[in-house]
Design a protein that fits this description.
The chain is about 10% helix and about 20% strand. It is α+β, with helices and mostly antiparallel strands. A hairpin with a 2-residue loop joins β4 and β5. About 30% of the residues are buried. It binds zinc ion (3 copies). The site of one zinc ion has 7 residues, from α2. InterPro entries: Headcase, Headcase_mid.
């Protein structure tokens, strides 16, 4: 089991808090894991989970113009199933532009608290072994049980490791065992510029 570094507690707000290195970036093990997983599925490219643009995967670092991560939930059918440290997870990718979120067409906001999701602090071209969306909970909605919607944590409470949010938890109210903090992306986020202009005739 990979154990990450302790989360920095930043009392001055969220601005300075980023996802810390969990020690598996840029190593050969991670590189070979991604390449062999894709080869088994006969894939040489992946699609960004947010904008769906195709991304080539290279056999050297940086592996992709974005970041890979492993989620316990399959955010889209293009995310292939992998076995990682005994767990069944899904290999997911976010492109650099979407991580950055600077272009308004790429930015996504929490549907509940409206806070923009910011992936600009993530290391590019490698892989996180946990769900990067779950790892950055913005508001109390993120701490609710996926089944009974009761709060599983105090809204001010935070888990010790970013990867903790991707682990299975049993809800004390309804007894449902799930990775409750990993939510479907469409449930949590909306595109900032959701207004599509009607096609002019
Ligand atoms: Zn993208
Ligand atoms: Zn929120
Ligand atoms: Zn529950």
């Amino acid at each position: 089991m990979l154990i990450g570094h302790h989360l920095r507690v930043d009392s001055g707000g969220n601005s300075g808090v980023g996802i810390e290195d969990e020690g598996n970036h840029g190593n050969d093990e991670t590189r070979l894991f991604i390449l062999s997983s894709l080869a088994q599925s006969q894939m040489s490219r992946v699609a960004c989970i947010l904008c769906e643009e195709p991304l080539l995967v290279f056999d050297r670092y940086p592996l992709v113009d974005g970041s890979f991560f492993l989620s316990p939930k399959q955010h889209s059918s293009g995310c292939i199933e992998v076995k990682y440290e005994g767990r069944t997870l899904y290999l997911t990718c976010v492109c650099m532009s979407c991580l950055d979120g600077t272009s308004s067409s790429r930015a996504i906001n929490c549907r509940f608290c409206k806070e923009p999701w910011d992936g600009s602090s993530l290391v590019l071209g490698t892989m996180y072994a946990y769900d990067i969306f779950a790892a950055m909970p913005c508001c109390a909605e993120r701490f609710k049980c996926n089944n009974c919607f009761k709060m599983l944590m105090h809204p001010q409470q935070r888990l010790s490791f970013y990867s903790d949010y991707s682990h299975g938890v049993t809800c004390p109210y309804c007894n449902t065992q799930d990775t409750h903090f990993v939510k479907p992306l469409t449930f949590c986020y909306a595109k900032t510029t959701a207004t599509r202009l009607p096609t002019l005739a």
